[in-house]
Amino acid sequence: MSDYRIQGDTGEWEVVIGLEVHAQVTSNAKLFSGASTTFGAEPNTQVSLVDAAMPGMLPVPNRECIRQAVRTGMAIDAQINTWSRFDRKNYFYADLPQGYQISQLYHPLVGEGSIEVSLDEKNPDGATKVIGVERIHVEQDAGKLMHDQHPTRSYVDLNRSGVALMEIVSRPDMRSPAEAGAYVRKLRAILRYVGSCDGNMEEGSMRADVNVSVRKPGDELGTRTETKNVNSVRFVMAVIEQEARRQVEVLESGGRIVQETRLYDPDRNETRSMRSKEDAHDYRYFPDPDLLPLELDDAFLAECRASLPELPDAKRHRFESLGIAPYQAGVLTAEVEAARWFDTLLDAGAPPVAAANWTTSELFGALNRTGRDITDSPVGPAQAAELLALVADGTLSGSLAKQVFEVMLETGESPAKIVEDRGLKQTSDTGAIEAVIAEVMAKNPNQLEQYRGGKEALFGFFVGQTMKAMGGKANPAVVNALLKKALAA
Fold first, then answer.
1. How many Cβ atoms from other residues are within 10 Å of residue 32's Cβ?
2. Could you give the CA distance from residue 384 to residue 346 in angstroms, rounded to a whole number?
3. Which UniProt keywords apply (predicted)?
4. Can you say how many angstroms the Cα of residue 69 is from the centroid of all Cα atoms in its chain?
5. DSSP string covering 341-409, please?
6. If you average pLDDT over every residue of the chain, what do you get?
7. Dihedral of the CA atoms 287, 292, 298, 301 (nearest 10)?
8. How far is Cα 158 from Cα 43, in angstroms, rounded to an integer?
C-alpha cells in the first residue's frame, strides 16, 4: 500500500489513479487501409479513400494490427478473446471524416491482465505492486487539427486518420505519481520488447489519458477527472500531483468535483477544463455494420505466442542467475536495445559480472556524456568483449583499459590494435618492476621510515608512486606482491 498522501487543511487525502494508454501499433499500414503510417510525412500525404471516408469505401481489418494486439495481451498474461467485435463511437469533429470512430466497447480483443512494477528503481527485487489491466481494445485514431498555419483558419491533417491504436485500460489500482510512472515505464518496456509499439511518446505513438480522483483514506471512490493526451512519464506524474492537489482544494473549500475532461499545460504545470466528460451512451455506440466479428483460431494464437521474445522480467531474472546484481540487471533490461546489446556481449564470451559492471558504468557513462544511446554506440559488443578479454588475461590493467576505451570511442578501432599501436600493454616483468620499486623507495626515505615504523597506510602511497613511474602499465597484483617483499626487507 502506498503511503503517498495529499496533506489538506482537513487531514490526509488518498489519490486514486487509473490510466488509459493509447499505443500506436507497429505496422506498415493503418487499421482498415493500406495507407502508410510513417512519422513526419507532409500533411495529407498518407490518406487512402477509406481514411478520408469517401462514399462506398468499406474497411478491411489489417491482420498484422490484430496480431500485434494479441501478442501484447499475451505478454501481460491477459485473457485473449477469440471472439470480439468492432463498434462505432459516434461524434462529430473536423478531424473525424467518418463522423464516427471504429472502436471496441462491448467485446474487446483482449480482456483482463496485469503488470508487475518495481516500486524501488535501485532495487528491482524490492517492493513490487501488481497493477490490473482491465482490457486492451483496438481502434482507429482521428486526424489532427492545425491551428498555427493561418491567422483565421484551422487546417486538417488526416495522416493519422485510421492509424491503429491499442487502448490499454488499467484498473484504478495506482495510489501515487511514482506508481503511475513505474507502470508507464514498465508498459512501455513490454511494448518495445514485444515490438507492438515503438513507445516514442515524444512522437505521439504512445500517450496516456490520466484519470484522477481523491478521497479520505477508506472512503468510497471520489469523482474522477480525465486529463487527455499526456505524452511523457514526467508529465503523467506531474498531472497526478497537480490535479490531486486541485481536487483537494476544491473539496476542502466546499466545492464539488465535476466529471470532466481536462488538458495539461506543461509550461504552467497545471490542468485546465476542456469539456464535460461524456459517458458511453452519449456516443450512441452500436456494432459496426461494415465489419464482421473477429474470430481467432488456435493456429493463429499459437503463432502469436510462439513469436513472443524473452520479456523484461524473465530477462532480468536470467541475468541475476548469472551473478549480476539486481540493480544492474534492472538497468540492463529497462530498454530493449540495451538488453539485446548486452546479450550479444555475453554471446561473444564476455564474463557476465565483469561485463555488467563495465556496461553499466563505463559504456553507459560514456554514452550519456556524449549524448548518444546504445543504438549508435561507436563501440559494438564484439569490441567490448575483446576489451574485457584483454583485462581478464592480464594484458590490460583497469586504468589502461579505460585509456583504450576512450580511444575506441574516438576512433572505432579494435582494442588489440590500440594496445599494439600505442604500447599500452601491461607489464608483469618482475625485474623491471623491482628496479622501479627500488628507485621509488630511494626517493622517499621519510615515507619508507614511517612505513617501517608501523604506518602501514603508506603502502598505498608506494603503490601509487610505482604505478605512476611505470605509466600505469605495471600489473597491479605483481606490484603489490613485490612491494610487500621490498618494504619488509
1. 23
2. 10
3. ATP-binding, Ligase, Nucleotide-binding, Protein biosynthesis, Transferase
4. 19
5. HHHHHHHTT--HHHHHHHIIIIIHHHHHHHT--GGG-SS-HHHHHHHHHHHHTTSS-HHHHHHHHHHHH
6. 92
7. -70
8. 7
Q: What distance in Å separates the CA atoms of residue 97 and residue 143, rounded to the nearest whole number?
A: 8
- The string of pLDDT tens digits covering residues 172-207 is 999 999 999 999 999 999 999 999 999 999 888 999
Question: What are the φ and ψ backbone dihedral angles of 286, each rounded to 5 degrees?
Answer: -155, 160
Number of Cβ atoms within 10 Å of the Cβ of 273: 11
Contacts of 427 (CB under 8 A, 6+ apart): 433, 470, 473, 474, 475
Interval 424-453 mean pLDDT? 79
Q: Give the separation between CA 348 and CA 344, rounded to whole angstroms.
A: 6
With contact defined as beta carbons under 8 Å apart, do 27 and 39 qualify? no
Per residue in 376-402, is it b (16+ CB within 10 Å) or e — as a string? ebebebebbbbbbbbbeeebbbeebbe
- What average pLDDT does range 444-458 have in this prediction? 84
Q: Using 50, 70 and 90 to split pLDDT, how confident is the model at 337?
A: very high
Query: Which neighbouring-strand residues pair with 89?
Result: 101
Would the pLDDT of 479 be above 80? no
- Per the CB < 8 A criterion, the answer to whether 424 and 473 are in contact is yes
Q: Where are any strands of DSSP class E within 127-224? A: 128-140, 144-146, 155-157, 164-170, 206-215
The cell for 121 is 528503481
Contact (CB, 8 A) for 397 and 419 = no
**What are 26-82's pLDDT values in tens digits?**
998 999 999 999 999 999 999 999 999 999 999 999 999 999 999 999 999 999 999
Q: Is CATH 3.40.50.300 what the domain over 430-488 is classified as, yes or no?
A: no
Nine-digit cell string for 180: 503511475
How far apart CA 190 and CA 194 sit, in angstroms, is 6
Tens of pLDDT, residue by residue over 353-367, are: 999 999 999 999 999
In the chain, domain spans: 6-300, 310-422, 430-488
∠ CA(453), CA(459), CA(465), 5° rounding? Answer: 120
Are the beta carbons of 136 and 110 closer than 8 angstroms?
A: yes
Distances, alpha carbon 172 to alpha carbons 20, 211, 469, in Å:
10, 8, 64
Q: Look-up: residue for cell 487509473?
A: 18
Global pTM?
0.87
d(CA 69, CA 9): 46
